[in-house]
Amino acid sequence: MAFADDGRDPLERYSRQMRFPPLGEDGQRKLATSRVTICGCGALGTVLANHLVRAGVGHVRIVDRDFIETHNLQRQILFDETDVAENLPKAEAAARKLRLINSQVQIEAVVTDIDHANILDLVSDADLILDGTDNFETRYLINDAAVKLGKPWIFGGVIGSEGQSMTIRPGITPCLRCVIESSPPPGMTPTCETAGVLGPAVSVIASFEAVEAIKLLAGKLDALNTELIMVDIWNWSFRRLKIAGLKGKVDCPTCVRGEFSWLEGEFGTHTTTLCGRNAVQVAVRRGEPLNFGELAGRLRALGEVKQNAFMLKFSTEGYEFTIFPDGRAIIKGTNDIARARSLYAQFVGN
Predict the structure, then answer these.
(1) How many structural domains does the chain have?
(2) Each residue of 95-140: pLDDT tens digit?
(3) Fewer CB within 10 A of the terminal residue: the chain, N end or C end?
(4) How far is residue 61's CA from residue 55's CA, in Å, rounded to a whole number?
(5) Which among 192, 252, 255, 275 is annotated as catalytic?
(6) Under 8 Å between Cβ of 278 and 320
(7) Cβ partners under 8 Å of residue 108, min gap 6
(8) Edge-first strand listing for the sheet containing 329-332
């Protein structure tokens, strides 16, 4: 963290935070020397980045593959209509806003798609990895990297009015695959595009993540959450699932067997630009065919759907999807691989 040489106490701006006894000045100084990587800068990621930069975390790396669209503004709090008009990448737009909020914090914007080839470089120097993503593919990749490197990370996810979060410390707590061994196949679960998402639900879960990050970075480990937290702000329900007992009790592929299949590229989405077609093929490795009936039922409210036994075609927002039973999709209307992956996650699923 860089401080301005103007004679003022650099910690003064955090005075109200330091007056909270469990944190204090010692905890604040630890925050100032900490480094975090936020994976994803959409709804969760913008709230996370906002909290941690204002809290004085010394170095914040923001990684995101996408650009800002008008429908993002409902819940992605660091963006505005000017960002949409300028067609800015989310990571860059967020960094510009955050530098105006706190010039003491080093903010690094990385515009890239997180995959098995680059994730170790993106998180290896971080003290903590934060989940701002919208899909389990990336979360399992984060989990593999965190366990391999022995780094803590905080999981969070929101759909509709519901969200969940848990804090993962490799070697101490269960990892993500101890609790959720495998993700649902594409097309079988709702996404933000098909089920919607409420901004306040995002803020609640991201705030849970942020306060856990502050505790962890400040060295207040006894105060960390040890459960899977599940909240539904519409139905006003709050559940806490005790998961600590799973550590060492389940045959986890990652933290027990030491298999890093996502990190090694054995699982996950594979993309190819189709030359001359303004299209990208997104191929997902899966063991069972898509349920076209269920997928079509969810997509009809969002665009035109046609299907037969061999493929499902879906058109929306200027894009045309041709989806095959094995989960593979050809997305026409873009040559941008990162954009195609985002569209796949939005409309088809993980």
Answers:
(1) 2
(2) 999 999 999 999 999 988 888 989 999 999 999 999 999 888 899 9
(3) N
(4) 15
(5) 192
(6) no
(7) 59, 60, 61, 62, 95
(8) 269-274, 279-284, 329-332, 319-323, 312-316, 304-307
Nearest to 168, CA basis, from 203, 131, 138, 196: 131
Whole-angstrom CA distances from 333 to 242, 282, 337 are 45, 13, 11
Residue 40 pLDDT > 80: yes
- Residue 212: give its domain's CATH number: 3.40.50.720
Global confidence as pTM:
0.83
Q: Is 255 a catalytic residue?
A: no
Residues 223 and 339 both lie in one domain: no
* pLDDT tens digits, 219-253: 999 999 999 999 999 999 999 999 999 998 999 99
Host domain of residue 118: 12-246
CA atoms within 13 A on the CB side of 55: 29
Which CATH number covers residue 332? 3.30.310.10
